Structure formats: structure tokens, C-alpha cells
Amino acid sequence: MKFKLTFSLSLGILLSAIPVLGHHSFAREYDGSKPITLKGSVTMLDFVNPHSWLYIDIKDAKGTTVSWGIELGPMHDLKLQGWSKITLKPGTKVAIEGFPAKNGSNTANARTVNLSDGQTLFTAGSAMSPQTKK
Questions:
Q1: Of 17, 50, 98, 117, most Cβ neighbours within 10 A?
Q2: Is residue 3 in some structural domain?
Q3: Domain range for residue 114?
């Protein structure tokens, strides 16, 4: 009986750690020392787990439209912040405050999404962690 209990507890602890092994770290993917602001129009909000994604089109310095993927927090955490899958409709003008990907891709991790009416939406993401606060 003692063996079964010990084995079950050990197996439970081992299995509960598996999701942590696959999760990425903010510091590994994003540069917390280089805050950026991206202004553009929403093309899509992918309201999913484990991380939601916001896609926007912005104009670069040459006037060319560039698409960006913006990582947000998990759907459940966004819901607690008042988000829904229709919070940001395509065409909505936004200013994203966050941090760029270290690999130079058009990807960022958002801290806030600012709307043209002055409303600020918090993103419940890893950019909200203490090491990235202003």
C-alpha cells in the first residue's frame, strides 16, 4: 500500500511538471530592455490558450504596410481583464506598448493596448512581470 501511494504521488508530481517544460520564458523570446510602441490597425484577434494573439498592420518608415503578431496573455486572464473575442474588431486603430522579439521578427509581447478613445486594455501577459515594469 505504501509503495502504491508513493508511486502515485511521484507520478502525479512528475506529470504536473510537464506543461512547465514546454512553456517559454519572456526573457528568452523578448527584449525587456527595449520598449516599443506600435501604432496600426487590427487585422485579427486570435482569442485562444495558452496565449492569445493580436495581429496588426502598421506603416513602416517607407510607408509600406507591415504585419505584426502581438502576443497577449491567456484567454482566461484576458477575460478577467474584461476582454472578449470581439473586443478588438478588424480595422480598430490601436497603439501597442510592449517589447520586441529578440530574433528580429515582426513579433512583440504586449503590455497594453491603447485605443483611439483613450481606453487602455491590459494584456495579462508576461510583459506585465516585475522585470519588465517601467
A1: 98
A2: no
A3: 25-132
